[in-house]
Specification:
By secondary structure, this protein is mainly beta. It is built from no helices and five strands.
Length: about 60
């Protein structure tokens, strides 16, 4: 898993009906873009996480 600041971390729901949790990566704390990441959720809550196999990184598109 590789991310940069500004990418989104999407943690998929584990049971039927549970929504995905989306957070913005505000700091990459691992080496070469690896976890752990400091993330900020839409409600303003911040956390440090090391995503598991139920998560994905959505890379931000670079505007030219």
């Amino acid at each position: 898993m590789h991310a940069t600041k500004g990418d989104q971390l999407v943690q998929h729901g584990r049971v039927v009906g549970e929504h995905d949790k989306v957070a913005e990566i505000v700091e990459v704390m691992g080496e070469e873009g690896g976890p752990p990441y400091r993330v900020r959720f839409e409600n303003g809550h911040e956390a440090v996480c090391s995503p598991g196999p139920d998560a994905e990184i959505r890379h931000r598109e670079i505007q030219l």
